[in-house]
Amino acid sequence: MRSSTALALTGFSLIAATYGMARFSWGLMLPAISPDIPFTPQQAGLLSACSFAAYCFTILTSAALTERYGTRVTALLASLSAAAGLLLLASASSVLMLAAGLFIAGLSSGLASPALAAAVSHRIPAARQPRTNTLINAGTSAGIILTVVILSMLPGGWRAACLLFALLSLLCVLPVMRVLKDQAAERTSRVRHWQQRFYRRTMRQLMGIALMSGLVSAAWWSFGSALLRQHVGVDAETARLLWLIAGSAGIVGAATGLVAARIGLNGVYRLSLCGMALLVLAMSHGESIGLGIAVACCGAGYVTLSGVLLVWGARATAEDPATGVSILFFMLAVGQVVGSLLFGQLYACWGATTALTLFAIVALLLLFIAPAKNSGEAVK
Q1: How far apart are CA 104 and CA 84, in angstroms?
Q2: Taking the CA of residue 69 as centre, how many other CA atoms within 13 Å lie in the half-sphere pointing to its CB?
Q3: CB–CB of 21/86 below 8 Å?
Q4: Of 223, 268, 345, 347, which alpha carbon lies 20 to 30 A from 170's?
Q5: What pLDDT score was predicted for residue 15?
Q6: Distance of CA 156 to the CA centre of its chain
């Protein structure tokens, strides 16, 4: 029990650093960075896409890295890339340097998730794996909460915050070295397993769900703070408070496994989408009334939805969970790349209301697309 608790806490911390700080902090820092390093809405979309593109790259390779070098080495690379990217962001003086920093920092989250999924599979009994995985995944919310607190209270602005984020990412090295095992995963015929699962109908459906979910989420994670300031009209303090609410609400994602046991993963999935759609619709009207509730629903919805995808992916490749998690998280990130680029273009050409309305429609259409009730078993 002590070993499993240590693994859960280590994973929770690493996810907080790599997702909450190295990846999703950009959306909150965007309004503060743009006066120092000016860029257009299209460039903002491209910059956001850099982080998601890096995630796509590493999510494809991290399962192979975990198999070859073990979970410890892969998790260490995640911590180090987060720190390196954040340090580069802190010293950035141009859009190109911002892009490089976001890309390097974005590598970290794609390395962390499959490595931790593999570690949980090897060391946690099967019955407790979904609960442990969703607890670790909720580290995203803890990272977002810390991001808001640090940006609000630390003197020195966003650059000083990036330096502190980098230090906190480096601190993850210590528990990773102590808790994670260094042996590589048992080898399997990975290419054959990938092909078998890729071409199964249910797996293709899950990939489509992950892709479109990522596209919808990009509206908030890439442009949320800027939209709150420029479109809704809230001040900087209120925008940070709303971001904090989103992160705090995401903690409920730790209970994904428990809720799914009562209403099923499909029920949790649909509730999560409703939460994300609610915020996009609320912002599209440019009104702040009830925005706190909508933001909370979105934060809880995203973290819970990513937890559902994590469980689905791990079940789909039970003997090699890192691969299943990699496939679905890769598609989630591809959706976020496309969503960031698309939203940036729509925002610049047609305005925030049109862009948000279209993204909300996509989220609502996803409610009608769900795997078979027993998809977790069907894709084993």
Answers
A1: 7
A2: 14
A3: yes
A4: 223
A5: 93
A6: 27
Tokens of 27: 């959306």
Separation of CA 335 from chain center: 12
Q: What is the dihedral of CA 347, 350, 354, 355, to 10 degrees?
A: -30
- Residue 24 sits at the vertex; the CA angle it makes with 203 and 149, to the nearest 5 degrees, is 140
Residue-level pLDDT at 85: 94
Give pTM, 2 decimals: 0.74
The beta-strand segments (E) located in 110-247 are: none
Place of tokens 């998690």: 325
The pair of three-digit structure tokens given for residue 19, joined into one six-digit string: 């997702």
Burial class (CB in 10 A: 0-12, 13-18, 19+), 292: middle
Joined together, the tokens standing for residue 311 give 């469980």
Please answer whether residues 313 and 324 qualify as being in contact, where contact means their C-beta atoms are separated by less than 8 angstroms. Answer: yes
- Residue 359 exposed, middle or buried by CB count within 10 Å (0-12, 13-18, 19+): buried
Number of Cβ atoms within 10 Å of the Cβ of 192: 9
- Residue 200, sorted as left (phi over 0), alpha (psi -120 to 50) or beta, turns out to be beta
Q: Would you mind telling me the total number of residues written for the chain in this entry?
A: 380
Tokens of 228: 């709150």
Q: Which residue has the tokens 């260490």?
A: 76
Q: Which amino acid is at 311?
A: V
Contact between 46 and 341 (Cβ < 8 Å) = yes
Query: Strand locations in the chain, DSSP E?
Result: none
Judge contact between 228 and 283, C-beta under 8 A: yes
Instruction: Please list, in sequence order, all residues whose beta carbon lies within 8 angstroms of the beta carbon of residue 55, skipping any fewer than 6 positions away.
Output: 23, 106, 107, 109, 110, 329, 333, 336
Mean pLDDT, contiguous 10-residue spans, the chain (380 residues): 80 92 83 84 80 82 80 92 94 91 91 86 79 83 88 87 94 91 50 49 78 85 77 79 80 69 78 80 64 81 82 72 75 84 86 84 82 46
Looking at residue 190, what is its pLDDT? 46
- Enter the tokens of residue 328: 């679905």
Q: Which residues contact 153 (CB under 8 A, 6 or more apart)?
A: none
Instruction: Give the tokens for residue 148.
Output: 């808001």
